[in-house]
């Protein structure tokens, strides 16, 4: 694991964005509010900036499979991968907050076989992923996060 990273003070989404409002609600309520959003479940993913090396926090829809967290790097069907995905491909060490619990983990892109199995599961959480895939030529990756160790349930 990387040392000397200030995981407690990540950069949050830009001011004025719904993502920032979501992060503030999630963190301010210690996960009591914000985990459920628009009929699905969300977590807070903190990656390390691939250039800066500083932690960056993003709210994302997630699924679960046998203790692993699953994320879809859709960016709404944009031709480019989202920044959080590009960050974790460079630095796979991540932190997730799921409700009140914070976990340290390692992220990786799902294999083609895993993606085929996980895609229908993730569609149950957010059916628009199929629309996003149809809008772009890139194959939208699914990220698998293997948790390494629980952190405090008292996130700031």
Label the structural class: alpha+beta
> What integer value in Å does the Rg equal?
15 Å
* Strand coverage percent: 25-35%
Helix content, binned percent: 25-40%
Shape: globular
- Please tally the β strands and state the result: 8
Task: Report, as a whole number of angstroms, the end-to-end distance.
Answer: 21 Å
Would you tell me the overall average pLDDT?
A: 92
SSE pattern, N- to C-terminal: HEEEEEHEEHHE
SS summary, helix count? 4
Largest beta-sheet details? 8 strands, antiparallel
Q: Which stretches are low in confidence, meaning pLDDT under 50 for 5 or more residues running?
A: none
Layout of helices and strands:
Blueprint: H1 18-28, E1 36-37, E2 40-48, E3 55-61, E4 63-65, E5 68-72, H2 83-90, E6 93-98, E7 101-109, H3 112-125, H4 129-135, E8 142-150
Word description of this protein:
The chain is an alpha+beta fold and 156 residues long. 26% of the residues lie in helices and 32% in strands. The protein has 4 helices and 8 strands. Strands 1, 2, 3, 4, 5, 6, 7 and 8 form an 8-stranded antiparallel β-sheet that branches. The longest helix is centred in the last third of the chain and has 14 residues. The radius of gyration is 15 Å and the shape is globular. The two termini are 21 Å apart. The model has no long low-confidence stretch (mean pLDDT 92).
Quick tags:
156 residues, alpha+beta, eight-stranded antiparallel beta sheet, 26% helix, 32% strand
